[in-house]
Amino acid sequence: MAVRNIVTYPNQILKTPCQVVEQIDDWVRQLVDDLVDTMHAGPGSVGVASPQIGVSLRVCVIDVSKNRHGKDNNHGLLLMINPEILARSGAAVMREGCMSVPDYTGDVERSTELTLRFTEPDGTVREFEASGFEAVAIQHELDHLDGLLFLDRIASLKTGLFRRKSYK
Amino acid sequence: MNLCRKPNLAHFAVTIIGKDRTGIVADTAEVLYRLGCNVEDSSCTMLGGEFAMILIVSHEKPFSKKQLEAEFATKNANTGLSAFIRNLKDDEVCYRGPEGELCLISVYGSDKSGIVYRVTRELADRGVSIADLNTKLIGTPADPVYVLVLEAALPTGMAVEDVTNLLEKLKKELSVEISVRLITPVSL
């Protein structure tokens, strides 16, 4: 049981694609436990990815069940090793914030439905469909595993709505 | 965004506006860079054919508004750009984010006078604080359509539905469409 410090940008580990977990051992299971503890310690946090605690491995945890956006549509606590998005559809914009980028939020477009596959700490391979806020949270955390921050995906509402026009 | 006054820094609000051309931002940024100013916060956009810049800049003390003004006066001579600079006090620099829900309100309909006034007055009277606001005249010259989009921070305890209800009668009165949606950021 350990709450780990959250790494913040410009730490370059956040911009580095993570390594695949080759073997799930006690060290990896401890990492998953630490991620859960760290998530629960963060105010309102619904997910933490390994690089956010300084470990460049494809592991993250998500739980949107206590969040108002996710409480009616979720799969509970997800402990994900080597997660992959197999299919995606739909699109919606949400204003996101991230513990690794304090004091800033931005509008990001994400898929609204996902088919997902990952391995659990006991070695079980799970595959399921997620939607709504849980799907947004999964994409945000999986981006961390690819070295991407929400800042890489910001969509400006204003420029989308108001195309520049010539007044001349 | 956390922008808190550091005691060794002087802060200024700089507003620059002029007929749009290539290089306004670069020219302005160059003046600030050469003077050793930091751009702490800024918003720059095209409004009509004008390019408008609003910046909060800081500089290590001692530094005066006059130095900034003199530099811009030289740089902007014969360019048609106007610059306005204001000293900022401590309590103007420290910013605290809103505590209530954030919502996005869009209002649109046939162009008529009073749309901005009526909507914002209604909100202000209920303690709703506007964080960002844009308007645009779109449509055709024969059928002009006015669009107003604003982001507002609601007072603690006020819900998005309350805002929708509040603006319902304006919708009929002004014959405009009004939609309100929650955009309070999610922490991931």
From TrEMBL, chain B:
Domain of life: Bacteria
Residues annotated as domain ACT: 13-96, 104-185
PANTHER family linked to this entry: UPF0237 PROTEIN MJ1558 (PTHR34875)
Name of this protein: Amino acid-binding ACT domain regulatory protein
